[in-house]
Amino acid sequence: MRLRRIRFLPARAIAGGALPWVIGTMVFLCALATGFAFAMNNAVGQWADQLSQQISVQIVTVDEQVREEQASAALQLLNGLPGISLASRVSTEDSVKLLEPWLGAGNVTADLPIPILIDVATDPNHHIDLDALTAQVRAVAPDATLDDHERWLDRLHMLTKTLQSVALLVVVLILGATAAIAAFGTRAGLASHRASIEIMHLMGATDNLIAGEFRYRFMLQGLKGGSFGLVAGLFILIFVDHFASQLGRGLVPALDISLTGWLSLIALPGFAAFLTLLAAHLTVRRELARMP
């Protein structure tokens, strides 16, 4: 037998017109937290891929002539090794710019023993044994040190996991608050339509049929508010991505969101509707069970 809705509630909002706006605000915040969490994960992944294919060689010695000789020998060796795509020396001007944040602008003078830096790009299809490579380089440049950025990458991954955990906690708290708001709205709707509900009981309507009308109405409000919140959140995310592109991709990473991230964002209004439906159902059934 086909179940039919009992439309005994008025067409106006049963819990006040503010409920969709409140739900929309919650979904808006969820969209921002979710979008930035996925964007951060993708940005860190791109940084990690780039750094995992780079090795930095630093030659530190007081004698300038020795530095130059060791740098030339190291460059010649590195560019002839398998698995090395390109080894290039960092210019003195760029090295000075790297030191200025630590020593202060204008404090890096020519009489300072500025280390010579060599950027090494590795072949992603070739495994590089850092210990063996270090031994080879130090055979021709004893004052050279090699860094594959592994320690920095570990810290970066740890920071990313922490930020993602915080974003997940924020989303859970927002969803919990949304469910609580829907429950309070349902109680308010029940209180304002108590007389109508009692009449429906006298006419033989079951608790499930009465709860079904509340479920339907709150689901629509959750879907409406969630859709508005998602549109606003996507607008902010697109605006931030456009602003980042104006600054330059090298300075600020793009908000590249994966397919999973986009699907999660698109699902937010539906999840908000389900959450309000569930909260309304549980609240109505509990309150109806208390009625005489």
From TrEMBL:
Organism: Iodidimonas gelatinilytica
Entry keyword Cell division: yes
Swiss-Prot/TrEMBL keywords: Cell cycle, Cell division, Membrane, Transmembrane, Transmembrane helix
One annotated Gene Ontology cellular component of this protein: cell division site
Record-annotated membrane-spanning stretches: 21-40, 162-184, 222-240, 260-284
InterPro entries: FtsX (IPR004513)
GO biological process: cell division
Superkingdom per UniProt: Bacteria
Lineage: Bacteria, Pseudomonadati, Pseudomonadota, Alphaproteobacteria, Iodidimonadales
Name of this protein: Cell division protein
